[in-house]
Design brief:
The chain has 214 residues and is α+β, with helices and mostly antiparallel strands. The protein is 30% helix and 16% strand. It is built from 6 helices and 7 strands; from the N terminus they run αβααββαββαββα. A 5-stranded antiparallel β-sheet has the order 2-3-1-5-4. The longest helix has 16 residues. The radius of gyration is 47 Å and the shape is elongated.
């Protein structure tokens, strides 16, 4: 007795979960245009439930059949699915019910609202990243500080395929002007000789062979 009650309860739960509407797909176009054929189509479903209503969607060639009872919808689907109607196979499917919950549009969840530009406020737990310290090559600064005017410091040794990188320390305008003044006052002696400036070697222009036109 207990088993029968459990089985009846399970069946009741399953029936309440079933939708009370069917969707007829790929319906003949004549059903939408011919009133007599439409009446025959409706009579097929009215035999299962006298309170059945219909919604015709001509552009999709579909008909929604609304029953007053889910049991009638299940019985009609079981007996009429893939049956013949006016020389055309009828395909019936249960209508999927969509539960929106509230008729008004709800605001989005605040989990990812900080992605909206501009953000209203930073997310919880957000911390500003400190700026990285500038990269200073102290070895290079120390080596350059020890150089005198006219000396050079090689940063990168050249290879057969790559050039070398060399830092040259140039004279300032004050040093050059003082040297010229001392040289003019001493009459070109050894004490007033101007220090030789390093010669800047220009990059050699590649060879160019003009094309011979005939």
């Amino acid at each position: 007795m207990q088993q029968s009650e459990n089985s009846a309860g399970e069946a009741a739960v399953e029936l309440t979960d079933l939708p009370n509407a069917l969707i007829a797909c790929k319906v003949l176009e004549d059903v939408f245009n011919d009133d007599q054929l439409k009446a025959r189509f409706e009579a097929v479903f009215l035999a299962f439930d006298a309170g059945t209503t219909f919604q015709f969607f001509k552009s999709f060639r579909r008909v929604r059949v609304n029953f007053t009872d889910a049991l009638a919808a299940a019985e009609a689907r079981e007996k009429l699915h893939k049956s013949d109607f006016n020389g055309k196979e009828m395909r019936l499917y249960f209508a999927q019910s969509v539960h929106i919950g509230s008729p008004s549009l709800q605001p989005p969840k605040p989990d990812k609202q900080f992605l909206i530009s501009p953000p209203a406020s930073p997310p919880v737990g957000w911390q500003q990243t400190p700026d990285a310290q500038p990269l200073i090559n102290y070895d290079l600064l120390r080596a350059v500080s020890k150089l005198g005017p006219g000396e050079q410091y090689e940063l990168h040794t050249g290879t057969p395929t790559t050039p070398s990188v060399i830092v040259h320390v140039c004279e300032t305008e004050e040093d050059s002007s003082e040297g010229e003044a001392d040289g003019g006052a001493d009459g070109g002696g050894e004490g007033g000789k101007q220090r030789a400036r390093p010669k800047i070697i220009q990059t050699r222009r590649p060879d160019f062979t003009p094309a011979v036109t005939q």
